[in-house]
Amino acid sequence: MAGGNGVSVTEIVAWTVSIIALMYLVLIYNNLVQLKYNVAKAWANIDVLLKQRHDELPQLVAVCKQYMRHERDTLEQLVKVRAEVSSARNLVNLKELGLAEQQMRDVLNHLFALAENYPDLKADALFNHLQVRITGLENAIADRRELYNDSVNLFRIRVDQFPDVVVARLFRFRPGELLRFSARELRNVDVKALFG
């Protein structure tokens, strides 16, 4: 039935449905954008901590060199792994970063265990400060990695769900990679071996 201006009820319904559908697509798009930026923010938080730890390690090596003249290999390995973490971080290569991070933790744990053999080093205030600072950064990196992976996972779910998948493909949303744990990190710790 046409009104006085020639607009039918069917046309009004069609326009209303079109406007609602467009608003729904805009809502999906905006939600995907928010998830995308949450992932970027979570990565930026990890990146800041990695940079802080990267900056602390040369000081730790310098302090240790004063006392640990016989542990040159460990200190050189720490410098090497630091460069690998930095390279993977700069390239945002999460697979390589995960591997380099595990190596970094292994070398730091070994270094801190070796420090037990050097009472003068253990008594050094700067060494103690750096040890506490780096250990704190390690814990914060682990926490932020969990938050980052949660953000990526939420984004992945939304990108794969219908009807979001249509909008995601149309606008080429890519959720990113998870920062994975190595198999070694997932194993139970052998406490007896640590004290052996």
Main features:
mainly alpha; de novo design (two linked rop proteins); 196 residues; 0% strand
CATH superfamily: LemA-like domain
Task: Give the N-to-C terminal Cα separation.
Answer: 90 Å
Percentage of residues assigned to helices: over 70%
Stretches where pLDDT is under 50 for at least 5 consecutive residues are 186-196
Q: Can you identify the CATH class?
A: Mainly Alpha
Q: Beta-strand percentage?
A: under 5%
**Series of secondary-structure elements, N-terminal to C-terminal:** HHHHHHHH
CATH architecture: Up-down Bundle
Which topology does CATH recognise?
Answer: de novo design (two linked rop proteins)
The residue-averaged pLDDT reads 85
Helix count, per DSSP? 8
Largest sheet: none
Q: Shape from CA axes?
A: rod-shaped
Number of strands: 0
**Domain count:** 1
Structural class: mainly alpha
Roughly how many Å is the radius of gyration? 26 Å
Write a structural description.
The protein is mainly alpha-helical. The chain has one domain: LemA-like domain (de novo design (two linked rop proteins)), CATH 1.20.1440.20. 81% of the residues lie in helices and 0% in strands. It starts with 8 loop residues before the first helix and ends with a helix. The C terminus is likely disordered.
